[in-house]
Design brief:
The protein is of the alpha+beta class. The chain has one domain: Orthogonal Bundle (Cytochrome p450), CATH 1.10.630.10. It contains 17 helices and 12 strands. The longest helix has about 30 residues. The chain is globular and about 60 Å long. The protein binds protoporphyrin IX containing FE.
């Protein structure tokens, strides 16, 4: 930061001075789950509230979070309201599995996410980044929210299946994008369903999507198994086909391979796309930081990045990505529901109680951060893995279920952002603030136009 320059305070929803009454809380939550918090939430270690008969606990205390996500994690499951919309996308893959089945799957998937494997995927990240930059060339303005959606889907589809742009990639991309924007949005019935299969009469669109989606992924896996997809590929599908159960030695079944692929696609594309959007938005507000990053990237141009270790050439870029995830966590809320009664923060929690662990709140909490609302990437200097070392920082979740794709996401986002910054200067066309809106991911309230000027 320049000696006398003040850090920018990027847009965020209004923080209410007092806790909202139940009717106002319901209305505020329906319009934006990030806009219903009172100042208190950002100061306290925990808070309990009953809203329309639903017992809820907001947990900010690191020891209590560890209890939910690690030491007594079997007492807490994913709430049905969160599982129902995701099931058609992720099937029985690792994201939605529980207990011993989750443990088995996570262990089997681990070799697909080692640093060595992620490193082997770097050419796919470069390809997606290069295509994004190419599409921007000669265009003075861009909807970067949309552009990053395309680029991150391409990166994941290439990493999973070595799928280059073409009709198959277009079909899969359109299917997922359409689903998350329509039938895949959590709805009113999800909140009241007593079982996963309840209200089947209203689930036609989700069933149709699931059928088409799984059929499309099945076709790709079948072509690889049949050897008709060519041998010239390095991707996650290879790794999944090579997986063996530690005890039985059995490979994954077709359905298991498909469900894991579908899970990675869902978990990996929109989260990384949001990270890239908010990082570029912040850099458009902070031109001086953008210039510094461009200098850093030009000193080690993206095409030279061949290993994960090479990311050390871009320390500022990494700090900006980490700070973007602090201010606008791609996953703003991690929900758990009590399945076995437990005592948490000294409170007795019965079955069904909702536990809210909110990266949005934690990342702006006064106990963990100086100037919590300010954009100050340097706060992460010298902290290589703050999502593990910093108690108030959990963009990737925590405990044994921490995001399996964190290294993948950071390498991919670094390469895409560096490629864009090396070639283009970004600024906003309009002064209208872009407000974050909470859903499954932290979305912008509108998709702004960026001015994109080629730099020499
Ligand atoms: C910036 C990008 C990303 C963010 C912020 C992010 C965030 C998260 C979070 C918060 C969780 C924990 C959810 C919970 O405990 O309820 C999670 C889990 C997961 N993520 Fe990510 N993620 C990102 C990218 C990726 C990528 C690129 C992949 C795969 C290619 C991926 C695959 C997964 C999977 C499979 C899980 C479930 C792990 C388990 O339950 O054992 N994520 N992610």
């Amino acid at each position: 930061m320049d000696a006398l320059a003040r850090p920018i305070i990027p847009p965020a929803p209004y923080v209410h001075p007092e806790d909202l009454s139940t009717p106002r809380l319901v209305v505020a939550t329906l319009s934006n789950t990030l806009g219903n918090w009172s100042k208190n939430a950002f100061d306290i270690p925990w808070g309990r509230r009953n809203v329309l008969g639903v017992d809820s606990l907001l947990v900010n205390d690191p020891a209590a979070i560890r209890q939910v996500m690690q030491t007594n994690m079997t007492a807490y499951g994913r709430p049905l309201a969160a599982v129902r919309p995701v099931r058609p996308l992720a099937g029985a893959g690792v994201l939605l599995s529980e207990g011993a089945e989750w443990k088995r799957q996570r262990k089997m998937l681990a070799p697909a996410f080692t640093p060595g494997t992620v490193e082997s995927l770097i050419p796919h990240f470069h390809a997606a980044a290069g295509n994004l930059a190419e599409r921007r060339a000669g265009q003075p303005r861009a909807n970067l929210s949309d552009a990053f959606h395309h680029a991150t889907l391409e990166a994941v589809l290439r990493s999973l299946f070595s799928l280059p742009p073409g009709p198959e990639q277009t079909e899969l991309a359109a299917l997922v994008r359409d689903y998350v924007a329509t039938a895949g949005r959590p709805n009113f019935l999800d909140g009241f369903a007593p079982r996963e299969e309840s209200f089947a009469f209203a689930g036609g669109a989700r069933r149709r999507f699931r059928k088409r989606w799984f059929a499309a992924v099945d076709r790709i896996v079948a072509a690889r198994r049949a050897g008709t997809a060519g041998a010239d590929h390095v991707d996650l599908l290879d790794r999944l086909l090579a997986v063996r159960d530690a005890e039985t030695g059995a490979p994954l079944s077709d359905a298991e391979v498909r469900d894991q692929c579908a899970t990675m696609l869902f978990a990996g594309f929109e989260t990384t796309s949001r990270l890239l959007f908010w990082a570029t938005y912040l850099l458009s507000l902070d031109g001086a930081e953008q210039t510094r990053l461009r200098q850093e990237v030009r000193a080690f141009p993206p095409e030279r990045l061949a290993t994960l270790e090479d990311q050390h050439h871009w320390p500022r870029l990494r700090n900006v990505l980490l700070e973007a995830m602090r201010l606008y966590p791609p996953v703003p809320i991690i929900m758990r529901q009590v399945v076995t009664p437990d005592v948490l923060c000294g409170e007795s929690l019965g079955k069904g109680c909702l536990v809210w662990i909110s990266p949005w709140v934690l990342h702006r909490h006064t106990a963990f951060w100086d100037s919590p609302t300010a954009f100050m990437p340097d706060r992460f200097a010298g902290k290589p893995t703050p999502w593990i070392s910093e108690p108030g920082y959990m963009p990737f979740g925590g405990g044994p279920r921490i995001c399996i794709g964190a290294a993948f996401a950071l390498a991919e986002a670094s390469i895409i952002l560096a490629t864009v910054l090396e070639r283009f200067e970004l600024s906003m066309e309009s002064d209208r603030p872009v407000m974050p809106v909470g859903g499954v991911t932290t979305a912008p309230d509108h998709e702004p136009w960026f001015r994109v000027e080629r730099v020499g």
